[in-house]
Automatic annotation (TrEMBL):
Site (Important for substrate specificity): M1
Higher taxonomy: Bacteria, Bacillati, Bacillota, Bacilli, Bacillales
Protein name: Deoxyribokinase
Amino acids binding K(+): D221, T223, S257, K260, G262
Pfam families: PfkB
GO biological process, one term: D-ribose catabolic process
PANTHER family for the chain: RIBOKINASE, SUGAR KINASE
Main localization category: cytoplasm
GO MF: ATP binding; metal ion binding; ribokinase activity
Residue ranges constituting the Carbohydrate kinase PfkB domain according to the UniProt record: 2-269
Cofactors demanded by this protein: Mg(2+)
Amino acid sequence: MDLVVTAAKRPEAGETLLGEKFYTSPGGKGANQAVAAARLGAEVHMIGRVGDDEFGSDLLKFLEKENILLNGVEPVTGSASGVAMITLAEGDNSIIVYQGANKETTRDYVRNFESLIAKSDVVITQLEIPIESVEETARLCQKHQTKFILNPAPAADLLVDLLMKTDFITPNHSERETLSKQVDLNKLLDKLIITEGKDGVVYFENEAPRRILSHSVTAVDTTGAGDTFNGAFAYAIGIKKDVETACHFANAAAALSVQKLGAQAGMPTKEEVNEFLRNNGKNKS
Protein backbone atom coordinates (compact mmCIF):
# COMPACT_ATOMS: atom_id res chain seq x y z
CA MET A 1 0.00 0.00 0.00
CA ASP A 2 1.35 3.43 -0.94
CA LEU A 3 1.25 6.05 1.83
CA VAL A 4 1.66 9.31 -0.04
CA VAL A 5 2.27 12.87 1.18
CA THR A 6 2.69 15.89 -1.08
CA ALA A 7 4.86 18.83 -0.04
CA ALA A 8 6.45 21.93 -1.52
CA LYS A 9 9.92 20.49 -0.95
CA ARG A 10 11.67 17.52 0.62
CA PRO A 11 12.80 17.90 4.24
CA GLU A 12 16.49 18.12 5.03
CA ALA A 13 17.94 15.78 7.66
CA GLY A 14 16.38 16.69 11.02
CA GLU A 15 13.85 19.05 9.43
CA THR A 16 10.06 18.82 9.89
CA LEU A 17 7.77 20.23 7.21
CA LEU A 18 4.01 20.54 6.88
CA GLY A 19 2.64 18.44 4.05
CA GLU A 20 -0.07 19.61 1.68
CA LYS A 21 -2.04 16.39 1.02
CA PHE A 22 -2.06 12.79 2.24
CA TYR A 23 -3.69 9.72 0.72
CA THR A 24 -3.31 5.95 0.50
CA SER A 25 -3.29 4.13 -2.81
CA PRO A 26 -2.76 0.49 -3.83
CA GLY A 27 0.78 0.01 -5.08
CA GLY A 28 3.84 -2.21 -5.10
CA LYS A 29 5.89 -2.56 -8.26
CA GLY A 30 4.60 -6.05 -9.07
CA ALA A 31 0.97 -5.10 -8.52
CA ASN A 32 1.38 -1.86 -10.46
CA GLN A 33 2.87 -3.69 -13.42
CA ALA A 34 0.10 -6.27 -13.24
CA VAL A 35 -2.60 -3.57 -13.26
CA ALA A 36 -0.92 -1.75 -16.16
CA ALA A 37 -0.89 -4.91 -18.29
CA ALA A 38 -4.44 -5.88 -17.30
CA ARG A 39 -5.84 -2.44 -18.20
CA LEU A 40 -4.37 -2.92 -21.65
CA GLY A 41 -6.23 -6.19 -22.11
CA ALA A 42 -3.73 -8.85 -21.01
CA GLU A 43 -4.80 -11.90 -19.02
CA VAL A 44 -2.69 -11.36 -15.92
CA HIS A 45 -1.88 -13.88 -13.19
CA MET A 46 -0.16 -12.56 -10.06
CA ILE A 47 2.26 -14.56 -7.92
CA GLY A 48 3.03 -12.97 -4.55
CA ARG A 49 2.09 -12.56 -0.89
CA VAL A 50 0.18 -10.03 1.19
CA GLY A 51 -0.20 -9.70 4.95
CA ASP A 52 -3.25 -10.81 6.89
CA ASP A 53 -3.96 -7.19 7.80
CA GLU A 54 -6.43 -4.60 6.54
CA PHE A 55 -4.01 -3.42 3.85
CA GLY A 56 -3.69 -6.99 2.55
CA SER A 57 -7.45 -7.39 2.33
CA ASP A 58 -7.79 -4.06 0.53
CA LEU A 59 -4.98 -4.86 -1.91
CA LEU A 60 -6.62 -8.13 -2.92
CA LYS A 61 -9.93 -6.36 -3.50
CA PHE A 62 -8.22 -3.77 -5.71
CA LEU A 63 -6.52 -6.48 -7.77
CA GLU A 64 -9.75 -8.45 -8.18
CA LYS A 65 -11.46 -5.26 -9.37
CA GLU A 66 -8.77 -5.00 -12.07
CA ASN A 67 -9.58 -8.56 -13.24
CA ILE A 68 -6.20 -9.90 -12.12
CA LEU A 69 -6.24 -13.63 -11.38
CA LEU A 70 -5.07 -14.28 -7.83
CA ASN A 71 -4.63 -18.04 -7.45
CA GLY A 72 -0.93 -17.28 -6.94
CA VAL A 73 -1.45 -14.76 -4.12
CA GLU A 74 -1.80 -15.97 -0.53
CA PRO A 75 -1.94 -13.99 2.75
CA VAL A 76 0.84 -14.60 5.29
CA THR A 77 -0.46 -15.22 8.82
CA GLY A 78 0.88 -12.73 11.34
CA SER A 79 2.65 -10.57 8.75
CA ALA A 80 2.10 -6.96 7.73
CA SER A 81 1.60 -6.17 4.07
CA GLY A 82 4.33 -4.32 2.22
CA VAL A 83 4.10 -0.55 2.22
CA ALA A 84 5.79 2.29 0.34
CA MET A 85 6.21 5.68 2.02
CA ILE A 86 6.20 8.23 -0.79
CA THR A 87 6.99 11.94 -0.75
CA LEU A 88 5.87 13.95 -3.78
CA ALA A 89 7.79 17.21 -4.00
CA GLU A 90 9.48 19.42 -6.58
CA GLY A 91 7.96 17.52 -9.50
CA ASP A 92 9.29 14.09 -8.53
CA ASN A 93 9.04 11.40 -5.88
CA SER A 94 11.15 9.83 -3.14
CA ILE A 95 10.18 6.37 -1.90
CA ILE A 96 11.06 4.07 1.01
CA VAL A 97 9.72 0.51 0.66
CA TYR A 98 9.05 -1.90 3.54
CA GLN A 99 8.85 -5.43 2.12
CA GLY A 100 6.58 -6.97 4.76
CA ALA A 101 4.84 -10.09 3.41
CA ASN A 102 6.62 -9.72 0.07
CA LYS A 103 9.61 -11.44 1.74
CA GLU A 104 7.51 -14.61 1.93
CA THR A 105 7.43 -14.92 -1.86
CA THR A 106 10.18 -17.48 -1.43
CA ARG A 107 11.98 -19.72 -3.93
CA ASP A 108 9.82 -22.67 -2.84
CA TYR A 109 6.67 -20.59 -3.13
CA VAL A 110 7.54 -19.64 -6.72
CA ARG A 111 8.15 -23.32 -7.56
CA ASN A 112 4.52 -24.05 -6.65
CA PHE A 113 3.49 -22.14 -9.78
CA GLU A 114 5.85 -23.68 -12.33
CA SER A 115 2.94 -24.79 -14.52
CA LEU A 116 1.58 -21.24 -14.59
CA ILE A 117 4.98 -19.86 -15.58
CA ALA A 118 5.30 -22.56 -18.26
CA LYS A 119 2.07 -21.58 -20.02
CA SER A 120 2.63 -17.82 -19.82
CA ASP A 121 3.72 -15.70 -22.78
CA VAL A 122 5.71 -13.31 -20.60
CA VAL A 123 6.76 -13.20 -16.95
CA ILE A 124 7.90 -9.95 -15.36
CA THR A 125 9.50 -9.56 -11.94
CA GLN A 126 11.04 -6.77 -9.91
CA LEU A 127 13.21 -6.74 -6.79
CA GLU A 128 10.68 -6.09 -4.02
CA ILE A 129 10.72 -9.88 -3.50
CA PRO A 130 13.79 -11.95 -2.45
CA ILE A 131 16.58 -12.14 -5.03
CA GLU A 132 16.68 -15.94 -4.84
CA SER A 133 13.00 -16.01 -5.83
CA VAL A 134 13.75 -13.85 -8.86
CA GLU A 135 16.60 -16.21 -9.77
CA GLU A 136 14.24 -19.20 -9.50
CA THR A 137 11.69 -17.42 -11.70
CA ALA A 138 14.39 -16.79 -14.31
CA ARG A 139 15.42 -20.45 -14.20
CA LEU A 140 11.85 -21.64 -14.70
CA CYS A 141 11.28 -19.22 -17.55
CA GLN A 142 14.42 -20.42 -19.30
CA LYS A 143 13.40 -24.05 -18.73
CA HIS A 144 10.00 -23.50 -20.36
CA GLN A 145 11.11 -20.90 -22.96
CA THR A 146 8.88 -18.23 -21.44
CA LYS A 147 10.02 -14.67 -22.09
CA PHE A 148 11.39 -13.13 -18.89
CA ILE A 149 11.53 -9.40 -18.17
CA LEU A 150 13.48 -8.16 -15.15
CA ASN A 151 12.77 -4.70 -13.79
CA PRO A 152 15.86 -4.29 -11.52
CA ALA A 153 14.16 -2.05 -8.97
CA PRO A 154 14.90 -1.26 -6.23
CA ALA A 155 18.54 -1.44 -7.31
CA ALA A 156 20.43 -4.40 -5.82
CA ASP A 157 23.47 -6.62 -6.37
CA LEU A 158 22.57 -9.17 -9.05
CA LEU A 159 24.33 -12.28 -10.30
CA VAL A 160 25.57 -12.13 -13.89
CA ASP A 161 23.96 -15.55 -14.37
CA LEU A 162 20.56 -14.04 -13.57
CA LEU A 163 21.07 -11.15 -15.98
CA MET A 164 22.05 -13.53 -18.78
CA LYS A 165 18.82 -15.52 -18.29
CA THR A 166 16.68 -12.44 -19.01
CA ASP A 167 15.13 -11.53 -22.33
CA PHE A 168 14.85 -7.87 -21.32
CA ILE A 169 16.21 -5.77 -18.44
CA THR A 170 14.43 -2.47 -17.80
CA PRO A 171 16.43 -0.23 -15.44
CA ASN A 172 15.91 3.48 -15.01
CA HIS A 173 18.94 5.75 -15.22
CA SER A 174 20.11 5.27 -11.61
CA GLU A 175 19.50 1.51 -11.73
CA ARG A 176 21.54 1.36 -14.93
CA GLU A 177 24.44 3.00 -13.06
CA THR A 178 24.19 0.32 -10.36
CA LEU A 179 24.16 -2.44 -12.99
CA SER A 180 27.19 -0.96 -14.75
CA LYS A 181 29.25 -1.49 -11.59
CA GLN A 182 28.31 -5.18 -11.53
CA VAL A 183 28.58 -6.25 -15.16
CA ASP A 184 29.87 -5.05 -18.52
CA LEU A 185 26.66 -3.64 -19.99
CA ASN A 186 28.06 -4.06 -23.50
CA LYS A 187 27.29 -7.76 -23.04
CA LEU A 188 23.63 -6.95 -22.35
CA LEU A 189 22.84 -4.38 -25.04
CA ASP A 190 20.35 -6.65 -26.80
CA LYS A 191 18.45 -6.93 -23.51
CA LEU A 192 18.64 -3.35 -22.18
CA ILE A 193 15.61 -1.03 -22.19
CA ILE A 194 16.57 2.07 -20.19
CA THR A 195 13.80 4.36 -18.95
CA GLU A 196 14.92 7.94 -18.36
CA GLY A 197 11.77 9.79 -17.29
CA LYS A 198 11.43 13.13 -19.05
CA ASP A 199 14.30 12.11 -21.36
CA GLY A 200 12.35 9.16 -22.74
CA VAL A 201 13.61 5.61 -23.24
CA VAL A 202 16.72 4.09 -24.81
CA TYR A 203 16.98 0.68 -26.46
CA PHE A 204 19.73 -0.77 -28.66
CA GLU A 205 19.62 -1.89 -32.27
CA ASN A 206 22.72 -3.63 -33.66
CA GLU A 207 24.51 -2.38 -30.52
CA ALA A 208 23.68 1.25 -31.38
CA PRO A 209 21.53 3.28 -28.95
CA ARG A 210 18.11 4.41 -30.14
CA ARG A 211 16.23 7.02 -28.11
CA ILE A 212 12.47 7.46 -28.02
CA LEU A 213 11.68 10.93 -26.74
CA SER A 214 9.21 11.52 -23.95
CA HIS A 215 5.86 13.14 -24.73
CA SER A 216 5.19 16.65 -23.48
CA VAL A 217 2.48 16.35 -20.82
CA THR A 218 1.73 18.03 -17.51
CA ALA A 219 2.89 15.62 -14.82
CA VAL A 220 0.74 15.49 -11.68
CA ASP A 221 2.31 12.39 -10.07
CA THR A 222 5.23 10.40 -11.49
CA THR A 223 4.75 7.52 -9.04
CA GLY A 224 4.16 4.36 -11.01
CA ALA A 225 5.25 5.75 -14.38
CA GLY A 226 8.07 3.23 -14.62
CA ASP A 227 5.72 0.43 -13.60
CA THR A 228 3.23 1.53 -16.26
CA PHE A 229 6.03 1.42 -18.83
CA ASN A 230 7.03 -2.08 -17.72
CA GLY A 231 3.48 -3.45 -17.72
CA ALA A 232 2.80 -1.94 -21.14
CA PHE A 233 6.12 -3.16 -22.54
CA ALA A 234 5.40 -6.67 -21.26
CA TYR A 235 1.94 -6.57 -22.81
CA ALA A 236 3.32 -5.47 -26.19
CA ILE A 237 6.06 -8.13 -26.15
CA GLY A 238 3.43 -10.70 -25.16
CA ILE A 239 1.41 -9.94 -28.29
CA LYS A 240 4.59 -10.31 -30.38
CA LYS A 241 5.36 -6.65 -31.10
CA ASP A 242 8.96 -5.81 -31.97
CA VAL A 243 11.11 -3.95 -29.43
CA GLU A 244 10.80 -0.54 -31.09
CA THR A 245 7.01 -0.75 -31.31
CA ALA A 246 6.80 -2.04 -27.74
CA CYS A 247 8.91 0.88 -26.49
CA HIS A 248 6.77 3.45 -28.33
CA PHE A 249 3.61 1.89 -26.92
CA ALA A 250 4.96 1.73 -23.36
CA ASN A 251 6.38 5.27 -23.59
CA ALA A 252 2.92 6.59 -24.48
CA ALA A 253 1.28 4.60 -21.67
CA ALA A 254 3.72 6.10 -19.16
CA ALA A 255 3.03 9.61 -20.45
CA LEU A 256 -0.68 9.10 -19.85
CA SER A 257 -0.11 7.64 -16.37
CA VAL A 258 1.61 10.68 -14.86
CA GLN A 259 -1.36 12.96 -15.45
CA LYS A 260 -3.33 11.67 -12.42
CA LEU A 261 -2.57 11.18 -8.72
CA GLY A 262 -1.78 7.64 -7.63
CA ALA A 263 0.40 4.92 -9.11
CA GLN A 264 -2.52 2.98 -10.58
CA ALA A 265 -5.16 5.68 -11.04
CA GLY A 266 -3.77 7.01 -14.31
CA MET A 267 -2.85 3.70 -15.94
CA PRO A 268 -4.48 3.76 -19.38
CA THR A 269 -6.45 1.30 -21.49
CA LYS A 270 -5.21 0.07 -24.87
CA GLU A 271 -7.72 2.34 -26.63
CA GLU A 272 -6.42 5.37 -24.72
CA VAL A 273 -2.80 4.57 -25.61
CA ASN A 274 -3.59 4.04 -29.28
CA GLU A 275 -5.58 7.28 -29.45
CA PHE A 276 -2.72 9.12 -27.73
CA LEU A 277 -0.26 7.75 -30.30
CA ARG A 278 -2.55 8.75 -33.17
CA ASN A 279 -2.78 12.29 -31.81
CA ASN A 280 0.84 12.68 -30.77
CA GLY A 281 2.81 10.46 -33.12
CA LYS A 282 5.93 8.48 -32.29
CA ASN A 283 8.66 10.51 -30.64
CA LYS A 284 12.05 9.31 -31.84
CA SER A 285 15.50 10.89 -32.14
